[in-house]
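Sharing a chain and its predicted structure for anyone who wants a worked example. Both blocks are below, sequence first, tokens second.
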Amino acid sequence: MNEDLKKYEQTIKPLMGGKRFKHSVNVAKMAVTLAEKFGADVDKAYTAAILHDCQKEIDPDLMLEEAKNSGFYIDPIEIDCPKLWHAPAGAYYVRNVLKITDEEILSAIRFHTVGKADMTDIEKIVFLADTVSAERDYDDVEKYRKIVLDDLDNGMFMILRWSIGKTIGKKDRIPACTLEGYNFYAKYKKEYIL
């Protein structure tokens, strides 16, 4: 990995609390591990992962404004769910403030919360690394880590299935791109006993 990219850790540190910063570093570490294992661009994976939550702790009104101005389509269900705004707002910040124009990095940040169909390896890596990073401790996280480290596409199916189930359990709505992602990755499913 290009050590110059470590500057992004110092860029994001003042934007977030210690817990969120630790999470971002852990996501970046997992993203690098996945990129190395699956032959993806390590620098892109690190950059998108370390920056993925850069706007998570800003003022909600500014977050929504940035999300709407991100240049990415925002599903009406996402607009109704403030906890999802930080992803497109993060893509906005990275493009407009940090001047990173790589569309794959921007898209990985934008879709790290909701997923979508036919993601690039970098997009998949950031989405999955966010869900199975070292500090995550939900039930079965160790099993999900193993699945993700075994196969990115099956990992997408399993994590989307888990996420959709969790969302349904809360009686929340699911953005269309998440459902499209689930349907797309269902063809890659491998059976695991969880």
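Comments welcome. The domain at 3-136 is CATH 1.10.3210.10 (Hypothetical protein af1432).
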